[in-house]
Each structure stands twice: as structure tokens, then as C-alpha cells.
From TrEMBL:
This is Transposase InsO and inactivated derivatives. Residues 116-280 form the Integrase catalytic domain. GO terms for molecular function: nucleic acid binding. Involved in the transposition of the insertion sequence. InterPro entries: HTH-like_dom, Integrase_cat-core, RNaseH-like_sf, RNaseH_sf, Transpos_IS3, Transposase_IS3/IS150/IS904. GO terms for biological process: DNA integration. Gene3D superfamilies: Ribonuclease H-like superfamily/Ribonuclease H. NCBIfam families: transpos_IS3.
Amino acid sequence: MIDALKTYYPLALLLENLDLVKSSYFYHRSQAKLPDKYADLRVMLKDIFIESRRTYGYRRMHDVLKKRHIVVSEKVVRRLMKEKKLIVRSVTKKKYSSYAGEITPATPNLIQRAFKAEVPDEKWLTDITEFRISAGKVYLSPIIDCFDGAIVSWTISTQPNAELVNSMFDQALATLADNSKPIIHSDRGAHYRWPGWIERIKTNGLTQSMSKKGCSPDNSACEGFFGRLKNEFFYGFKWDNISIDAFIELLDDYLHWYNNKRIKLSLGGLSPIDYRTKLGLIA
């Protein structure tokens, strides 16, 4: 601003009115003429952000840089991301509910919001979430492992029926070792009180756990997954010209990416699959 006005007003007058020291003005002017030492980093940050599907905040971006042996502070990463407008979307919407009343006796809440597990297949969480696009409604039913947040299995359908949850459950059960008998925790939705669901639990020796009525914090780890999923994949995008089949394919692709590529700082900057590989749990 000073450079633009100093052709009309004396520099001393401008500095006095802006309460700016002369030496400070000349310092910042000289700095502005220097090459941008972060030019390459700015390009790299943008590339990483796009590769992350625009989902990584400055902490995960910093972790990726660290793995590439690039030494820079989190503060600098945060500032450069702000300057480049590399902003992660964040939206909160009303959740889908499948509650249909107390149609069968509810089982106790055995999880008690203790969403940490020492080993895989110790505690599983499940729920259903809904996506509304112009072409119609789509429902996702996943099982989340409390050990590392991995998605054990999932099904996607246009109908929130018994087949949606039972087929997902069958896929998850097929992954279990003979000695693995996880607690399977859900809300009090009708799907988890129908005979098919209950019979699968009994037949496979699992233990059922349910949240208190209308108490979403009792399954907050699963709710948190849905929140991340929708902020990263769904909200802020235009779905007007996307068919149901195309949407399902894109959602399925995201879920594979989530398991295999999306890093979590709680896992040392690894994806769930990479984390299990590092621990020798999978080949």
C-alpha cells in the first residue's frame, strides 16, 4: 500500500500515519524481493492435499512430509496451507436412525464407551448411515474394528433392510479366526434385533452389546467414522448428475482407500492395513 501511495505523498508522512518504523518498512520491502524459499514446498503441499482427497489437515500433511525426510515445522505447514486455501471440509448433519421401538429385549452395553482394543477382532462397532443424492438414497452398513479403526466389512444398498446388515455380517464373520469371538456393538436399531442378526451372533459365539436408547455417544467411535467419511467424501461435492450405481462405485472406492491408503496419526502415520502389516498381523 505504501509503495502505491508514495508517488502522491511523502514517505515520512505515510509511515507516520501508519505508525510504521522506517527501518521496518525497508526490511519488509527487501524481504518481499527475495525468492520464495517455500516455493517447492507449496507445490508439494498442494499435491499431497489432492492425493489425500483433500482430507488431510496440517498435522497429517506434516507427517507425510516427515516420512519424505522434509524438515519443516507444523506451524509453517499450517501457514502455507492457509495461504494456499488448502482447507478440509467440515459439515455436521442429522444422522439416519433405524430405531423402531423396543421390538425385542435390548442387550446390555458391554462396551461402555471403551473404544480401545488390544488386539484385532476384540470389539466391533456397527451402524447404518444414509446418503441422499438427486438420484435417490443410498445406505452404508460397515463394521469397524476398535483395534485400529479398520473397516472389517461393508455393504452398500438402496434399501436399509435385513439383507444389508446380514450380508455385511456374513462377510465379517468369514474373516474371523476360530478363536476370535468379538463383542459386536450397535445402537438399538431394528436391524440388530431381528432374528437373522441374533441367530448369527449365537451361532458364531459372539457377544452382543447395545447402546442406551437415544444415546449416540455410546457408539461415538462409529459415529465419528461416519462424520469423517461424509466430510471427506460426500459433503461439499455436487452429486446432481451422478447415478446410483456410479455413486455406489465411488463410495466403495473411498472405503478401500480409507483402509489401505488414508493415514492415521494414532497409528504412527500409517493406514490400518499398513499398520497391521507392520505388526506382522497380515502378510
